[in-house]
User: Which sequence fits this backbone?
DNA sequence: TCCTTTCCTGAACATTCTGTTCGATATCTT
DNA sequence: AAGATATCGAACAGAATGTTCAGGAAAGGA
């Protein structure tokens, strides 16, 4: 018997090639008009090979998103040293800023998907992850202060954050993560 | 010579049939997997007829959105009598609430598109229209108070409104337009 | 190194959808 | 009624999908 099948270098190579080709194509056209043919041409991979790895094109998008999110949302948990924050760790604000730094560092990659016209799958992922984060590290109960339902507030808060990120990307990240975080804090207080 | 070609009853009939079929199909599956074949089957219309009216499927979506928006955003301008507001007319809050009433009245139609997975075209239309409205009737300068850029605030404000509407629809519009407007006002103050 | 397992290849295939064309037919306006 | 116009329906080329299979390549274990 073999060890983990996933460790086979051929599989790694193929998957990497396909995903890289996919990301590259996303910089050129929108998701809907990227065909499997395009992908396998770019990746230099056989047709049947593609379907051996991904069920459909949507499947590929899903995995790509998941992989991106592991980067974004795992970084804030591990004790990253790349960006210093004066405090120790733990407040929601700091984590959100941390995420912004992460996005900025890996700017090229995220831009490709973020600016993809039909990336709602991506944004929905983002929001669900964000809600988990806010639930875990968020302040006690801002919804009660404002006298609105819990889930309304949660949706509002996370949406506002995501829209801020979109705005940031659309403006080519001209301002710093701290500035954006400050904007966000001012309007959501 | 004829009068306006658009007045031909056959044209009206065909366009109506196609659009109705399209909206009906949107209740059953998401936009991406609706084919022209589906549409012309449902509409009982020849293939060439479809392409005589719409360039592509995207074109059809565009027109459908436009038609919906005429309903939403023209209603607030004309002096509607269907819903009374204590005041006269003119404040932004009232108009937004007015829009909510409109959405609720024509609930079925909007639900179909709103809950369509890939309706970003629709939402982008909505947001751009909303921004026009806010620019025209909005308060003096909330952005300055909060010390954030004008366009950041505009994007934030309209996005928050739209996300509220989405939330409302997802919750089957259980609360009244006034309540939703109140929620929105409380979080965006 | 050899051997077995696993993966990739490349071509072929049946389906489906697209967007266009055209003559025949139905329906409109005047 | 007559001429103008829209629809029908069938056919077509082109492209994409998702599947299959045999042969070759490359990985890992012994």
Assistant:
């Amino acid at each position: 018997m073999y060890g983990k099948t996933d460790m086979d270098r051929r599989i790694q190579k193929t998957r990497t090639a396909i995903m890289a080709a996919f990301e590259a194509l996303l910089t050129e056209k929108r998701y809907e008009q990227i065909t499997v043919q395009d992908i396998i041409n770019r990746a230099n991979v056989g047709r049947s090979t593609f379907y051996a790895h991904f069920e459909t094109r949507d499947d590929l998008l899903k995995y790509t998103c998941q992989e991106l999110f592991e980067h974004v949302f795992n970084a804030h948990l591990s004790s990253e040293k790349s960006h210093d924050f004066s405090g120790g760790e733990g407040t929601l604000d700091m984590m959100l800023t941390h995420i912004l730094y992460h996005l900025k560092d890996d700017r090229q990659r995220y831009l490709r998907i973020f600016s993809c016209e039909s990336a709602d799958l991506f944004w929905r992922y983002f929001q669900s992850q964000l809600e988990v984060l806010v639930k875990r590290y968020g302040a006690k109960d801002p919804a009660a202060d404002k006298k609105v339902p819990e889930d309304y507030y949660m949706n509002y808060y996370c949406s506002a954050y995501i829209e801020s990120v979109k705005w940031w990307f659309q403006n080519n990240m001209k301002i710093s993560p701290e500035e954006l975080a400050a904007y966000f804090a001012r309007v959501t207080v």
Q: What stands out?
A: The CA atoms of residues 120 and 172 of chain A lie 20 Å apart. Residues 1-5, 79-89 of chain A have pLDDT under 50 and may be disordered. Residues 1-3, 7-10, 35-37, 47-48, 51, 55-57 of chain A lie near DNA strand D (CB under 10 Å from a C1'). Chain A is about 70% helix and 0% strand.
